[in-house]
Amino acid sequence: MTSPAPRPGILDISPYVGGRSTLSGMDRVIKLSSNEGALGPSPKAMAAYRAIAPEMHRYPDGHAGALRETLASLHGLHAEQIVCGAGSDELLQLLVRGYAGLGDEVVYSRYGFLVYPIAAMASGATPVVAEEADLTASVDNLLSVVTPRTRILFLANPNNPTGTYLPISEIKRLRDGLPEHVLLVLDAAYAEFVDRNDYSSGAELVDAYDNVVMTRTFSKIYAMGGLRLGWGYCPPAVAAVLNRVRGPFNVSSPALAAGQAAVEDKAYVELVRRHNSYWRDWFTEAVGRLGLTVVPSVGNFVLVRFPKEPGRNSAAADAFLRSKGIIVRPVASYGLDEYLRVTIGRDDEMQAVVQALMEFQGV
């Protein structure tokens, strides 16, 4: 007997594998593998989540009206141009579904988020890679691979897993260099952590042009990865497309309630931002003193490079850290075999990682 066959190309997709969460034989681990919020969600968000429990038999607001209004008020945006999704991942996939298919191309940078090629291939489109310069997206290289078949260009800014970013001047140059038929998707999942005065998430470009979309997530600074909540800011025509291809109730009531409370808790967000900035700088300096190369990061994670020699390389460091109950993220799947990505965690967690790396380095 012959089983049903998937569409051509589906089985060529390498499934996305998230960061490890557990270690065999260890009851307590320090998990710094998934860029999750160090301090957990806002207490007000948790209270809102608990309060909605008696209403779980009701369908959620399929338009996410209250959350969209709250986001619009916070960021100075037009609520009708905001579309919410089950994580920004869903929105990235919906954008490909709505705008690219068989025979089309989707462009992204070499070390961009792995969901980009997965979403492209799932819709029958061809992913096209542009090389980076010093682990940073290159506008010239991105534009050089754009063809008449290109429908979407994804750019994570800041980028995961490198932690690097492009200033808004370069984003504008990229937009200006694209044909009008190409949709520029700015994935700003880590925007809230950036403390550079030349950075912008790109919302102003959405208002100025018809081919720019900005996506955001609640999984990082809001620490709500388990609820799956994200949003996109789109030109009206793109929002209309997303609202046609998304599910009618694609975001749950608990996620909507917790998300709105999290957005409104500005003091907690600022606390998380200050915590991340301090410990990111502290960790970068401490690891640099150990003789390891650290890629300058503006996110809530740091990419650390290890030498190639056996016993001192990234694989050996990863195994040593796991023996100490510390989980970080190998990034060989991105082609970065010499690196480990370390999420910024609580103060005691960051101190524990540095202590373990000191032992590994023999310091």
Determine Rg (CA atoms, Å).
21 Å
Strand order of the biggest β-sheet: 2-8-7-6-5-3-4
For the secondary structure, the number of strands is: 13
Number of helical segments with 4 or more residues: 12
Distance between the termini: 62 Å
Secondary structure class reads: alpha/beta
Helix content: 25-40%
What global shape is seen? globular
H/E order of the elements? Answer: EHHEHEHEHEHEHEEHHHEEHEEEH
| Unreliable sequence segments | none
Can you describe what's shown?
37% of the residues lie in helices and 15% in strands. By secondary structure, it is an alpha/beta fold. Strands 2-8-7-6-5-3-4 form a seven-stranded mixed sheet, sandwiched between helices. A four-stranded antiparallel sheet has the order 9-10-13-12, covered by helices on one side. The longest helix is centred in the C-terminal third of the chain and has 23 residues, at 266-288. It starts with 29 loop residues before the first strand and ends with a helix.
